[in-house]
Amino acid sequence: MNFEFDILSDVLNSLDICGSLLLHESYTAPWAISVPGAQQLGKLLRVQTGTRAVAFHLVERGYIELTSPQLGVKPMVVEAGEMVICFSGSPHQISQGTEPPSISVEYVLSGGEIPFRCSADARSSSLLCLCGIFYLRDTYLNPLFAALPPVLHAPVSQVESFQNLTGVASLIAKELDKPSAGSSFMVERLLELLCAGAVRSYMARLHPQDPSWLTGLRDPIISRALAKIHAQPGHDWSVDSLAQSVELSPSRFAARFKTTLGEGPMTYVSKWRLHIASRLLNRTEKNIYEIASDVGYDNLAAFTRAFKRYFGEPPGAWRTRHESVRTG
């Protein structure tokens, strides 16, 4: 994809992705660890409001079985060279072997005794797993986050086109095995790359006929329209002007856009504008009129109505509530 405006980078940047490690352990089967849902995990890790804590598990040796209410009865098997990212934030359990009573991740992080932690001489035949958190900011109305599966199962080293992830995972392992000055900073940056790489690998594996924002990035017509919207969110867009920019009739453009993304072009424009507005409210000192103008609203009342429709409260109240949580 060679766009004048890199849409995927724009939306990845809007999430302010960062990462931290929770565990890098070798376990001997049978074992099981339970991980709470995103809200409880956020409280445990003292995550600020507006930030979502997303658990991930990368298997370096052996395999794990992941069970979650969203996966149904059958567990997801994650083998060496694969990772899972639980974007839905659903509580889940990772395990191996005949399932014993699980130990909570909170207990593990508190330094409690782990009965299934393997001895040094047994590590070559045991599981080696890296577990951590990706922190994503302002996910609401973010089209990338909405397009991701509840649980993303990504190859890291098994498919040639994803070798970039192999290198990232290898660098993380090296920093953990032989930490030195700056290792913490290095690992956090590498985790950002790992998350972005997993998203790109998922995008590459999507069927072209699946309606999705990520599928839209691969459509030469729709991607051009999205690039226009993202490059100039405050522009006075209409179906006609967007269609003209990609040299299609308005009816054909609108139909193609909705078939590809699952929603109409002006609905998408509205959602992206309001997503940007929520970020500006949360991250800047701009007044509400300035923000409304930045995202294409000349009328403050119209902006307030649109914001309340999606966020459930006026922009001023939304900003005040988020500020009180941050400072409380």
Spell out the blueprint of helices and strands.
Layout: H1 7-14, E1 18-27, E2 31-35, H2 38-44, E3 51-61, E4 63-67, E5 76-79, E6 82-85, E7 92-96, E8 103-104, H3 105-109, E9 127-137, H4 143-147, E10 152-155, H5 163-177, H6 183-205, H7 213-217, H8 220-231, H9 239-245, H10 250-261, H11 265-283, H12 288-294, H13 300-311, H14 315-327
Parallel strand pairs: 2-8
Antiparallel strand pairs: 1-9, 2-7, 3-6, 3-9, 4-5, 4-7, 6-10
Helix pairs in contact: 5-6, 9-10
Could you describe the 3D structure shown?
- This is Transcriptional regulator, AraC family.
- Residues 223-321 form the HTH araC/xylS-type domain.
- It comes from Acaryochloris marina (strain MBIC 11017).
- Residues 159-163 have low confidence and may be disordered.
- The protein has 2 domains: 7-205, Jelly Rolls (Sandwich); 215-327, Homeodomain-like (Arc Repressor Mutant, subunit A).
- It is elongated, with a radius of gyration of 22 Å.
- Helix 5 packs antiparallel against helix 6 (183-205) and helix 9 packs across helix 10 (250-261).
- It is built from 14 helices and 10 strands.
- It has a 5-stranded antiparallel β-sheet, sandwiched between helices. The chain has a 5-stranded mixed β-sheet with strand order 5-4-7-2-8.
- It has helices at 7-14, 38-44, 105-109, 143-147, 163-177, 183-205, 213-217, 220-231, 239-245, 250-261, 265-283, 288-294, 300-311, 315-327, and strands at residues 18-27, 31-35, 51-61, 63-67, 76-79, 82-85, 92-96, 103-104, 127-137, 152-155.
- 46% of the residues lie in helices and 19% in strands.
- Strand 4 and strand 5 (76-79) form a beta hairpin.
- It is of the alpha+beta class.
- 34% of the residues are buried.
